[in-house]
Amino acid sequence: MGRTGSASASSGPTLAVVAREAGVSVPTASKVVNGREDVAPETRRRVMETLDRLGYVRRPRFDAGRAPGLVDLVVQALDTSGAGAVLHGVESAAHDAGLEVVVSAGPARTRGGRPERGWLDKLIARGSAGVLCNLADLTPSQYAWLVEHRIPFVMIDPAVEPPSGVVSVGAANWQGGVTATEHLLALGHERIAVVAGRRHTMCGDARIAGYRSALASAGIRHRPEYIRHTGADEGAAGRRVLDLLDLPEPPTAVFLCSDRMALGVYGALAERGLRVPDDISVVGFGDLPESRWIAPPLTTVRQPLSEMAATALRLLVRMMDGDRPESTRTELSTRLVERSSTAAPAGQEPGGFR
Hints:
The protein has twelve helices and twelve strands. By secondary structure, the protein is α/β, with parallel strands linked by helices.
């Protein structure tokens, strides 16, 4: 991760230590150190006294020419509600930290399907002090490039496990899978299917593992034919669920590992003349705005995207100030949001199989 570790004892206390001793946030202490005006006089006095008392020596924070007040947020796409939630969280935390944010979509793909490197060159041209990546993944060469140029960066909800030492923020996906499945079990469902995205992703694997764990705890053997994978296309998720319903013993409920999948599933079910939850119960994951708008409103596991993004920005600020997070992986809790897309299986009361 480049030179983002904590300072040694001989170099004096880190800004995080100063902030803790002064009873303020790291961004507030950073504002005082950098002479910003948007700090209350009493707070400024307390921080300055702590700086003197601890013997804090301001270290060079960034390479020459890098703008200390500018960070980049690189997202996979800008036209989704998930990207909007990430942007909201980053902007809010950046405002508190006195930082400006440049948002870009990318990286674009070459004809061979590999991400282009142009967005990395733009980081240097802009003089960005740090990067937040809300991307499916980065290539090894892109990771190496960021480290080589000593640009602190944090991954938000990476699809695949980052290399050792890379800081990332995600959701408690395993627990989310458990919660979704336990909800359906409590309603009396035994035949529960799960549809995830592409194989071997951090979030998908964890959500499926949670699903299987909840079934095992209830004494129900999971059925391999009830576990399906699909791409990001909403229509593909709908086709997977219709395939499940064509099985000799079709599921009575399905856990979809994203709310966007649910949109496609609702449409496919409607085309076949099936109703949610009368014919099949549906649980999503994400709690995107769309989950409240569709009919019936979707029961889903809330993934705190805005909070994840804000947490990532605060971690990035610490790294920009030379501090090193205690853990490279931070997970925020998920919770079930119960709406109208789930019910007991037809002809059975909730909890009837127990």
